[in-house]
Every structure is written in structure tokens, then in C-alpha cells.
Amino acid sequence: MDPNQGCPYDALKVFCNFTAGGTTCIDPLKSQIKFMWEPENQESRRPLQWFSQQRGGKKFEYAGVDVVQLRFLRLHSHTSFQHMTVSCAANHSSAATSMTNSINRTIHFLGDSGKEIDPHLITVSRKGCEVEVVVRVRGSTELHRGDMELLPVRDLGVEMRGLSPLSPDTTMVLGPLCFL
């Protein structure tokens, strides 16, 4: 698909789901991400640790997405959304309980614009040690004009203060970025 209708060399590979109302989705380059959180040391006192700042971590990337094509997709869409699942090893129940009981305070998402995604745009559902997260933004209205710039999700941060140490087996499955 070539949203800017220019040269075919900058076209995107997308999945169009017509049974879901005509969504156009772009897959992340890496959908399953394992986290190895560094223990909070006394010198840093960083209350929030971003995945991209961890050893070997980087911001989440999407197949073939450039700034121009993304701008045209946003312009021609009224909604965009992205699903994520955060889970940890079942044998780390204290970390799981802590994470699922306070997910709205402990997990943060960084949007494409470089701004943190506001919690009112995030829907959370829990099932044991698994947490389903959906970020949904709207465009084309005065109230939501800047929200479309938040997706795709580029980074995940975890507040470390007051949280039991997360299992090194914490995994996030990053779903496709979809436009409607």
C-alpha cells in the first residue's frame, strides 16, 4: 500500500482486515520482546525504567514505516489502535500480583511523538499473570487532534519503586498498529 500515492518504492506492507471494519494494520519488526530489568541500584534512583534504556534494548520499530507514510495513514483514518500483552512467569506470583494490581501506575507507554501515552487512552484487562493492554486514539476532531501522533507505541517503561522485582521472564507481545 502506498498511502502518499507517490513512488512505489516507499510503499508499506500492510494487512487489511475487512471483517473488522476495514482496518489497515502494520506489524512490528519484533513482536515478542523479553525484558531483563536491571535491579534498582542506590546511585541511580530512577523511578521509571524504559525498555530502550536497558542493556540491548531499543525503541520498537515497525515494518517499512517512515514518517511520510505514517502521516498519510493518520490523515486518512479516524481511529488507530494497538494491542499488547504483558506477561510474566507463573512461578513469580508476587511480581505478577504486584504488576496486575497496579498496572495503570506501574507500566507506561511512550508514543511515536515522544510523549507518554495518557492512561485515559489505555484499556487494561487482567487474566492471572497476563495483562492485556489496548491503546486506542481518535483523530480528525478538535478534542483529539494530537492523539493520532501517539501511535505506534515506541517504548515501555516500568515504575520500579514500590514494585516487587519483576521476573526476568517478563515478556511483552506487541500487536500490529491498526488504522480504521
TrEMBL record:
One of its GO terms (cellular component) is collagen trimer. Residues 1-178 form the Fibrillar collagen NC1 domain. PROSITE patterns: NC1_FIB. Keywords: Collagen, Secreted. Signal peptide: none annotated. The keyword Protein biosynthesis does not apply. This is Collagen alpha-3(V) chain. It comes from Lates calcarifer. The lineage of its organism: Eukaryota, Metazoa, Chordata, Craniata, Vertebrata. The gene is LOC127143496.
